[in-house]
Structure formats: structure tokens, C-alpha cells
Amino acid sequence: MKILFRALALPLSFHFLSLAHAIPSPEAAHGGSSQATNTTDDAMTITPRQSSCLSTGTQSTINALFSSGGANTIVSLCPGVTIPITAPIVFTAPGQELSTQGYPTDSTRATILIQPGSTVTSAIRGNWQNNVKVLNIQVDGNRPNAGYLGGDALLEMGGGTEGQTVSHTVVKNTRSWSCVHFIGSGQEDNPCRQATVTFNEVGPCGHEGTDPATGNGLWADGLSIECMDTTVTDNIITGATDGGIVIFGSPGSHILRNTITSSSSSGLQFGGINMVDPTWSGNYSGVVVSSNTITGGPGSFINLGIGMGSQVWSNPHPETNFGQVTVTNNVFTGNVGFSIVMNGWLGGLTVTGNSVSGVTTPSSSFASASGCGAVQQAAFADSEQLVYYPAGVTGSSGPNVIQSQFTALSTNASNWLCLTNPAPPLPDTESFLPNTLSVDASTSRVVSLRDFHVQVQGDGNVVGIDTTGGVWTVKWASSRFSSACGQDGSQCLLAFGIDGNFVMYDGNGPLWASGTDGSGQLLTFSREAPWVTVTGSNGQTLWTIGNM
Ligand SMILES: *[C@@H]1O[C@H](CO)[C@@H](O)[C@H](O)[C@H]1NC(C)=O
Ligand SMILES: *[C@@H]1O[C@H](CO)[C@@H](O)[C@H](O)[C@H]1NC(C)=O
Ligand SMILES: *[C@@H]1O[C@H](CO)[C@@H](O)[C@H](O)[C@H]1NC(C)=O
Q1: Which protein residue's CA is at the shortest distance from atom 10 of ligand 1?
Q2: Fewer CB near the last or first residue (10 Å), C or N of the chain?
Q3: PROSITE patterns of this UniProt entry (predicted)?
């Protein structure tokens, strides 16, 4: 389609930069004549070699330009400007474009910034308009300041359209479930099709965990794509927390050379590239996923690098995903729990040349499988990266070609999205200020250290136990017993008092004490001798358990 450069009909109140930075007209840029302007639309005015850019305004300014300009209007933002918005920018006619003047690819790209206090989650809405373009800008959902909010994605594109483009754009800090969403149309004869999503920098998107107030997941996708025959290439997606790229069916789409990395500031990322949802009735025919790099970054991890099939995500569904699909030459590195898992696919997978040699081993060094089913736990314990269930990956529309490193499961295991952060390592010591420790024998546990446990017992004894390897070895004991602990042990109380005295009480009163009242400042338990100490204001040792 011919790109027409459209003059902006501007109210005088809009402030524009001088024309010194005029960009060539697309005709000139494409080698055509700059005066060969042939329009059948009276409202359409071509202004070759003249351009102005928007240097200030809000969504209202931009929306007025799109509404009055009609089809093919380009709203060109000045480099470096920030446009604060409290409602979406909406494309209102085919071929409209929002871009930064001169199409820079660095930090001078203009920024669309959602304002705190607003209830908007979508900064830009391009649904149901053919060939609209978001080029060379930055879209910031401002989640750290505006807050998490359920709602539509930060960029909402797609619908019954063709030829939409999002390129060279930064999309980050979505308040909602996705940074970029191309929605399907729900119409078989007018599907979302032939979109282009290239060279974008996406993320962070979402957070690990759930909202304590609502229970809603805080995580978000990087790119959520439901359009067929779509090109998703050369994007850099860093710090997505749900799926880096979620392919919702989207037959015929090519997902190539994307770089997907989890980030410690966002936490756990569930998936790198997902082919798990039953959208398009599970039709993934002709999808190609090649030469992508999926990395679990330091201090974070990706649970599932590429998930394929109806049975691998946390919500297994009875419809089987299907179609001849090619997944080749993808590279997995760093903290990735499972690189590729396939179960619940019908017809013709080619999965070859994928590299897992750079994945961190053992997997247990960055994640825990304790919440997984037995099959997943066993695969995880063996740091298996390429896993499939042969009976769940059957050919009907073609043969399966699967690289030989895959481990074939003998059991139909669903839900591979079960990994969690490992429990933080226990400390070597734990200290208490006066008046901060009070434990009775009905509670029993005083401290848990690395391979070490201190407990107060119903017989009045206080004991330090080495638990290395699950074998309990008593390292020290107070050995002052009492028969006045009460039936449930609650009368025997170990406390570091407000006066700095470390005291064991039973039903009759103090059983023993450190005698550091007035001078004890800190009580410290350690997994090594001298095990228990009370220290004074200069850190000097006043008492140890060995003084008893
Ligand atoms: C302008 O458009 C008309 C109608 O499509 C066409 O006949 C004519 O050749 C065009 N002229 C130029 C200069 O492109
Ligand atoms: C899957 O999608 C492809 C591409 O649109 C189409 O040709 C094919 O008929 C679809 N298959 C089914 C079973 O719907
Ligand atoms: C695997 O289990 C799921 C869930 O029970 C089921 O829907 C699916 O058909 C099973 N796959 C095979 C190959 O039996």
C-alpha cells in the first residue's frame, strides 16, 4: 500500500518545532517524484518536503489530529518530548501513524507516559484499523508510579485488520496483563493478519506473584500475538513475567531472532515463548519459531523456555493444539528450568537444532520443583531440558522430526509450570535485641540456622542440634531440666528480657539466667561454637552457653 504523507491540520494553539528538521516525503524517500500527488480524497493534502512535529500536548492533542486528519495521517512527535496521557491515544482511520520525527532508535524517541492517578491501562489503541503504525516511540505504562491495574494491554492492536506495524518502539511498565497485545478478530473471514512486530524493546512487564488485595496475578506478557501470518522478529524482551512472547494460535506466523531474558528486578518469568493456548481452536499451522535466544538472567529464572501443546501450561485443556510447526535453532542459556516441553500436539512437529548447552546446571541451583508432580520433579532433578510425551505428540498432518536429545516420558504429565524460587538459604547466625525473643516449649523452635536447629523442650532442656544431611546430632544442651513446664510445655519459657538478661523460666520462676541484666545488648545463636552468646554495648562477650 502506498504511504501518503498527510499534512496535519493544526489549531494554532499547538506548538511545533521549526521546519528545520523536515523529513523527506515518503515519495522522495522511495525514489518517486515528490510532486506526483494524485489523490481522490479532497481532505487529503500532500506536503512533500515539509513536516512539523508535535512538541507538546496530551492524548487529546493527538486524538484531535487523527480524528480531523482521517486516513493516513501521520502524527510526528518531536524527538525528546514526553506526552503525558490520562486516556488512550486512538487510531481512527486506516494507515494512521504515530512516530517520532526522523525515526530515531535511541533515547530521543518521544515518550507516551501514563499519568499517576488515571485509570487508563492502554496507552494506544489501534484495533480494527488496517495498516496503522506505531514507529520509533517509547510507550511507558509507568507502573512504578501509576500502579498495577487490571485492564487492557499497554498497546492494544489487532482485530479484523491487516498490515499493522509496531516497530523500533520501546514498550515498558504495563499496568496490566501485557505490554503489547494483538487481539484476534473472532471472524473467520476477516482474521487479524499480516502484522509486523519488529525491532522493539519490550519490558519490564509485570511482577512475580499475586496482588494480596485481589489475588490477581501481577505478572504480564511481553508480546501477546493472536494474528495470523504475522512477523515477530528481532525484538528484545527483558523482564516479562508471564510469557515473553505468547503465540495465541496465529497460524503462519514467524517468530524469529527475538532475545528474551528474565530479570531479577521482575523476578520469576513463567515462559519464554508459549504455544500452549487453545485460541484459533488450537490451530498453529505453519508457525515457525527459530533462532530465538531465551535466557534466564541472574537472580531470576524462566520456568519453561518454549512450551508446546495443550498439556504443558498450568491450565491443561482438553483440545489438542495442532498444525505443522517448526521450532529450530533456538538457544537457551542461564537459569531455564525446562527448555522445551511438548505434550498435547497433533500433527507434524519439526523441532531440531535447539541448543541447551548454556543452561545452568543443576537446575536446583536456581529453582525448586517441590511443588511439582512426580514426573516433573524427576526430570528437574536430572536437569533435563528437552522433554516430551510421545503419545501426546502425534502426527496426522505430517511426521514429527524431533532432535535426539529429547527425553521421552513414559507418563502423561501435565502442568510443567510448577517451579518456584528456591527457599532462601538459612543464615549461619541469628541475633536478638533485648525484649525480642520469647519462646515456650509448646512452640519449641527457637531458631533455624543453616543445617542447625535450636529448640526448647517440654522437659525444660534447651538443645542445639546439627541437622546436616537430615541426621540430627546434639551439639550442646542447657541440661537444666524441669518438671514444671505444664502439660503442653507452655510454662517453660526462654526469653531475652528487656533488661538484657537471658532467662529460662518454668512454672515456678527462673530456672537459670545469663545474669547479664543491665549489660546484655545482643543475644546471638550460631551454628558454630560458642553457639549462644550475650554481648555488651562494645560487642564484648558477657556470657556463652558454655558458662552455664
Ligand atoms: C490519478 O488517478 C487516476 C484515477 O486512479 C488515474 O487515472 C491517473 O492516471 C492518476 N494520475 C497520476 C498522475 O497518477
Ligand atoms: C488452520 O489454519 C490454516 C491457516 O489459516 C488453515 O489453512 C487451516 O485450514 C486451518 N486448519 C483447521 C483445521 O482449521
Ligand atoms: C493426557 O492427559 C490429559 C489430561 O487428562 C488428556 O486430556 C490427554 O488426552 C492425555 N494424553 C494422552 C495422549 O492420553
Answers
A1: 38
A2: N
A3: BULB_LECTIN (PS50927)
pTM: 0.75
Q: Give the mean model confidence (pLDDT) for residues 379-406.
A: 89
Q: Are 363 and 316 in contact (CB under 8 A)?
A: no
* Domain annotation for the chain: domains and CATH numbers: 429-547 (2.90.10.10)
The answer to whether the CB of 36 is under 6 A from ligand 1 is yes
> Considering Cα of 176, then 182, then 188, then 190, what sign does the dihedral take?
positive
Give the closest ligand to the alpha carbon of residue 193: 2
Spacing, Cα 79 to ligand 2 middle (Å): 44
For residue 311, the ligand 3 atom closest to its alpha carbon is 3
Q: Tell me the C-alpha distance between 321 and 427, whole Å.
A: 47
Ligand in closest contact with the CA of 250? 2
Confidence of residue 213 (pLDDT cuts 50, 70, 90): confident
The SS3 assignment for 240 reads strand
Q: pLDDT digits over 7-42, tens only? A: 333 333 333 333 333 333 333 333 333 344 444 444
User: Are the C-beta atoms of 238 and 202 separated by less than 8 Å?
Assistant: yes
Average pLDDT over residues 369-377: 95
Give the up-direction half-sphere exposure of residue 352: CA atoms within 13 A in the CB hemisphere: 6
- Tens digit of pLDDT for each residue in 291-322? 999 999 999 999 999 999 999 999 999 989 99
Q: Is the pLDDT of residue 457 over 60?
A: yes
**Contact residues of ligand 2, CB 6 A cut-off:** 228, 251-252, 283, 285
273-290: average pLDDT:
97
Identify the residue whose C-alpha is closest to ligand 2 atom 14: 283
| DSSP symbol at 545 | G
